[in-house]
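This is your field. Have a critical look at both lines of this record:
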Amino acid sequence: MMLTSGGDQASPKFVLVNPFMDLKAGFGAYRHLMEPMPPIGVAYLAAALRRAGTAVDVVDAFAARLSPADAARAVLARRPDVVGLSCLTPAANYTLALARAIKAVRPDVTVALGNLHALFADELLAEGGIDLVCQGEGDELILDLAAWSRGEKKLEEILGVSWRNGGVCHNPPRPLIADLDALPFPDWSGLPIARYGLLPFATIARPLLTISGSRGCPYACSFCSLRFFGGALRRRANASIVEELRRLVGDHGARQVAFVDAYFPVTERQGLEFCDALLHAALPRRPALLTQMRVDVASPQLLAALRRAGVRRVMFGLESGSQEVIDAAGKKFTIAQAENAVRNARAAGVETVGFFILGLPGDNPQRARRTIAFARRLPLDFAKFSLFVPFPGSAIYDTLIAQNVLRRGDWQRFTTFNPDPSQLVYVTPGFTARELVDLQHRATLAFYARPAVIFRLLFRVRTIPWRMALAGVAALAGASWSLIRRRRARLN
């Protein structure tokens, strides 16, 4: 069926949606640790539409924890002409159910899907409920959709869009946006800012919002999906970033701002210049900043400057305590650089989070135990031990699909922290599913169940709300009891 635009509408109405997902299926006993995070992609799209004079509303179904039926009612109450769904892979099943619920009541509404899961355009369009699938950056694409809705542009002319016309049509890909400073700042109006948080190790103060200082990543780690949005690294000017921070604090009362970049700052020089610009800026108050850095950029000088500028906590993608596993993943750093980065941060007074992945290709039980020992040896404040998941868009995903060894379809299972072995979408050769889950439990217990760590979190870091702390303790206690029961069963 050929899609037709609403050419008779002088001003189409857009409704943008941040979907919810099945937290129980995706995270099991850890689902209580999941909070709605600021949907910066939706905020960017809303800003682009509003600057162009197009009417737009937003529905954060995750923050409101809406069922697909309730989310559809919330969307339809806003009388949309076009609905934009931002879909990450774990939310795909929910998003499709939401699309069908919208179309069941208003088949005339155009439903467009974007974000990472858009790489499955053929399947999504065949499922029903989705009219358009939009790949790549959406800031300019959505303006083309608005022009199409007004009858000013043909669908065939919109780069990055897939659609149905008998069969599935794929328009040519969109070029990456070169000048990020030309984009409007994300528009957070209409979004429930007070409800947003991050994972417990990342939340420092509330209210909190996010910021993007760059897009893209040239490193192409084999397990990372960022290549779907293009490998070319594009940076914003420091002055633009500082001005956005000023508005987040002054206009929205943000007490914490988290960078969502693959890593920020990109280089030591850029970082030092950013810190100098921020320190000389007239902000209503200094927000606590959170960022992720590469270990080979984390020099003592840069970390000291970041701390003076307000960076309270830094996250490092350390991945493994085995150099062989790090090299196989294409991370391009050494164990020694990782150790130096964490120690440099501690010396500068910056709190640290270490990200580790158990079960990466090339990993084995012995190397995983080495990773646990490595995490315990480092002076980290927090550690997160994820199970390897071959996310769509990553090089490893493509390899495993070609080998026909990857479970797919139950998209809500594509999460890295599920305590149910039967829910794992992939188990690395050399491990069993039960072994991987047990190693994750052992790693978390081994890191956190130490007097020095407990004392530091309770009396020095002190940023984890009691509700989250109790949920974490309950999850860890359940994991510990499960390990004890299985050990007893083996002994008997």
About this structure: The chain is about 40% helix and 15% strand.
